[in-house]
Request: fold
Amino acid sequence: MIPLKSGILFRTFKQKNEINNEWYKKAKTEIIHYFINDPAEGWSFVNWNTWDYRWFLEDFGKESFCLWMFGNRIGLWLNGNHFESEKATALLSTEKYSPLLSTLRPDSIFDNDWKIFETGNFFLIL
Reply:
């Protein structure tokens, strides 16, 4: 026989994916509501499926340099098929643009078209 506290913990663990999915659904609703109702001038926002969000400069389109959040990862991404990835990396290394890199606590810097990303080190206040 499993003690009561262990049984509750076991059932909760078994529901982990369901709990995660519910959290992502709530986060998606709040994120969409916030960015549609309070857009930043010159920026646009798109989302697809349960946990992919992209913020980008309207002048360059969604396939440009953008902030991309997917699941528990967030980062700065540049489409190397449309823009010079190496040039962006060089610019991000300059004094003028390096502050962009300090906005995240990176797991990786300059990993091909991902200029910086972090996994699980951020949180949303919903």
